Q: What sequence folds into this?
């Protein structure tokens, strides 16, 4: 009989403590979700503001102070503009003026009759028969509470963001006090830069690929004549930051509403095929090349992070699931007891693949310069 693999007791205890701490942290995040959700969004906006500020400083003659003010203004305006566009666009799309809300019921009845006729079934149900068992009033009430929560959450996000910006002045002094030795301080700053670089890289990749998808989607929606294509284009761009689920929404929502607007099925079919093609090309060819080693996250971890953060923090957690996974991998990799978790989170077993590649390169040999011959007198 083969003897079991011997593991040092210190390693077992260290890993057990790390696992228990992770479970306890997850439970605390769930219990304190009402407080931590706007804080997490504020930290995400703070990282965005810092990235925009450094970009403004590099590309304009503005000073450090004015670049920060410009970045703060741009990010806050974009944050509130996103909420306003989604709320107003949804209200206009489903309003009486658009005619979509009045046409949904008859179109569903026609689609059901066509499907039953295609498979040769009799007595097709109506839309009213299908929604009789649905608690529409409760669903609308829940949606109203969700909208109210988004508005109040945006207010608390701004409060947290203001305090985070105010606390930045003493951040350097806190780092010096926490890590008096320069080597430790440099390592802490390096961890922070890795976290910031991972989050900024994620935002950059999703923004560029989202613009590519939105350009094609807008052209398709304009070509078929879908109502309010600008609203749907913005929705596609926003949901692109939600992994897995965002692609499904972007590829199915416009075709579904095209069924309610048009009597023919061809506009919905064109939108469905066109959006699926561009999503497939971007998701399988363009996006992986742009990501590189910046987001060295296992795809299963991305899916689990989406489910876990969505369960804890709702829609905000879905948006922040991948950045939070990147941050968790960077922090866990710095400690001996939790590095194995970072290895599991990574895509190839190397949490810092770029450092591993550069470490294997031989260091250049520095030769001492030869002494110059003395001048002959």
A:
């Amino acid at each position: 009989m083969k003897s079991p693999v011997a593991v040092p007791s210190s390693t077992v205890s260290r890993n057990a403590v790390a696992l228990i701490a992770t479970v306890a942290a997850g439970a605390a995040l769930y219990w304190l979700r009402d407080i931590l959700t706007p804080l997490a969004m504020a930290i995400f906006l703070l990282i965005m503001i810092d990235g925009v500020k450094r970009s403004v400083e590099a590309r304009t003659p503005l000073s450090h102070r004015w670049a920060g003010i410009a970045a703060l203004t741009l990010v806050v305006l974009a944050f509130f503009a996103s909420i306003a566009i989604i709320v107003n666009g949804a209200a206009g799309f489903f309003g009486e003026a658009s005619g979509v809300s009045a046409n949904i019921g008859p179109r569903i009845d026609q689609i059901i009759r066509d499907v039953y006729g295609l498979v040769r079934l009799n007595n097709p149900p109506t839309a009213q028969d299908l929604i009789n068992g649905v608690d529409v009033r409760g669903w609308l009430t829940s949606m109203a509470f969700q909208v109210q929560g988004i508005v109040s959450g945006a207010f608390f996000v701004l409060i947290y963001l203001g305090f985070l910006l105010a606390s930045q002045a003493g951040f350097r002094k806190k780092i010096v006090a926490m890590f008096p030795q320069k080597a430790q301080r440099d390592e802490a700053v390096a961890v922070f830069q890795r976290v910031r670089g991972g989050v900024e890289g994620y935002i950059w990749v999703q923004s560029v690929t989202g613009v590519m998808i939105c350009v094609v989607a807008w052209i398709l929606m304009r070509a078929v004549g879908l109502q309010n294509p600008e609203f749907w284009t913005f929705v596609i761009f926003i949901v692109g930051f939600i992994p897995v689920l965002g692609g499904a929404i972007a590829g199915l929502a416009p075709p579904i509403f095209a069924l309610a607007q048009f009597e023919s099925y061809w506009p919905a079919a064109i939108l469905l095929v066109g959006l699926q093609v561009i999503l497939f090309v971007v998701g399988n060819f363009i996006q992986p090349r742009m990501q590189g080693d910046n987001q060295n996250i296992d795809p299963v971890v991305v899916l689990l992070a989406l489910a876990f953060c969505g369960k804890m923090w709702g829609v905000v957690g879905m948006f922040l699931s991948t950045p939070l996974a990147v941050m968790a991998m960077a922090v866990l990799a710095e400690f001996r007891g939790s590095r194995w978790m970072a290895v599991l989170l990574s895509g190839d077993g190397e949490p810092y693949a770029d450092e591993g590649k550069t470490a294997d390169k031989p260091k250049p040999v520095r030769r001492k310069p030869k002494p110059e011959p003395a001048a002959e007198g």
